Amino acid sequence: MLIKKHLLECVLIVLFGLKNYTVISHAMAAAPATSIHGPSAPPANMFDTVPGYEGTIAGGGGGYLPPPPPSVPMPEQAPSSPNWHIPSISEDQARDSFAMYVSSKCCYSSDPVKEGVITSMESFNTYRYRLETFMESRSTEWSQKPYTGQPVDAGVQPAPGPWQIAAQPPAFFQEHKQTIKVPYTSSVKNCHVCLGMGRNPCTTCAGAGNKVCWVCNGSGYRQSDDRCMHCNGRGRENCSSCSGSGTRQCDTCHGKRQLLDFINHILKWSTEKDEFIAQDSSGLRVENLGKVSGKELFKDAQYMVYPVRGFPDVSVGQASERLVRDHQVKYAQTSLILQQRQTIELIPITKVNYMWKGKPYVYYVYGNEFKVNADDYPATCCCSVM
Predict the structure, then answer these.
(1) How far apart are CA 63 and CA 66, in angstroms?
(2) What are the boundaries of the region Disordered (predicted)?
């Protein structure tokens, strides 16, 4: 046993150096600790200083990089105003939509549809303005991987600037994300977790290579005072996690002892949207309008859109001017705007007044889908399942 212990001590000194031997030797004699944690994140001074990437940190979080000035000028004038044609629905369409709505309700009688008399129809012009801004954002982060002989190019020549790295964007208004390794930023460093050893003390046995026997709970004997056969009376058993060696391969460098440090460029293409729905006096709840599409009256897409001018509803034009300005202020500072698109939809709302059995009632037909809302439908019944 003394010879084996001496050999193990020599192995530990070779693996971890004389400085670490005292700690590991103590762990062998004492009860194993619950865990041994190495540094979870690389120290800041582990990374080189690369001009143009001074704020880059490991794991990201350094914020988005400001884009270069736009190469395409803002439009100098608004596009010509289209002919704002407002469609309306017929009485037959209103009745057909009402009948379809009632037929979808198991507890609704069809009598009001068949016998009801439409007395009036009122059209309300409700508009939905939408502004979409498609943009590219760039950020950087220091990354690491086990060094296995990859090319090392840091300092060979200056690294290209964050916005000088060419990338192929997706089609307009398509979400996409891409990671590109920045050239001339790769260098090799000793692994900060295992200090360049390639192995770390086992966290299961605290580097001792053995742990308390689970059969005899460390006593070396069974309840019958017989020697424990599982550990041969030692009270401890070899650690299965490290096969009794007391060390395990470093998870960070995978045993390679060195790491390749480099900067990753994260490119993100995204679309930001804002909407405005003009208020109407129809009486239909606004939340219903989010469930339907509208009839497109206007569409404008270009690098930078100009606020809509001359629209019949003044509030739509005001919303367009406000949102176009807000998108410029909010996104142009951190992202490169590639395309904008604005649309105006008419969400048709028809308020239908009808009489049934001498009493007045109302239902609404709205949206491209001719959806119906009839909160006060007069012929409902309570259904029960036997």
Answers:
(1) 9
(2) 60-81
For the chain, what is the mean pLDDT?
Answer: 83
Q: Is the pLDDT of residue 72 over 80?
A: no
- Contact (CB, 8 A) for 33 and 214: no
pLDDT number for residue 232? 87
Query: Is 170 a residue whose pLDDT tops 90?
Result: yes
Which among 7, 35, 39 has a CA at the least distance from the CA of 201?
Answer: 35
Exposure string over 317-350, b if 16+ CB within 10 A, otherwise e: bbbbeebbeebeeebbeebbbbbbbbbbbbbbbb
Nearest to 163, CA basis, from 296, 52, 38, 299: 52
Q: Give pTM, 2 decimals.
A: 0.69
Q: Counting beta carbons within 10 angstroms of the beta carbon of residue 148, is it exposed (0 to 12), middle (13 to 18) or buried (19 or more)?
A: exposed
Q: pLDDT tens digits, residue range 116-161?
A: 999 999 988 789 999 999 999 999 999 999 999 999 999 899 999 9
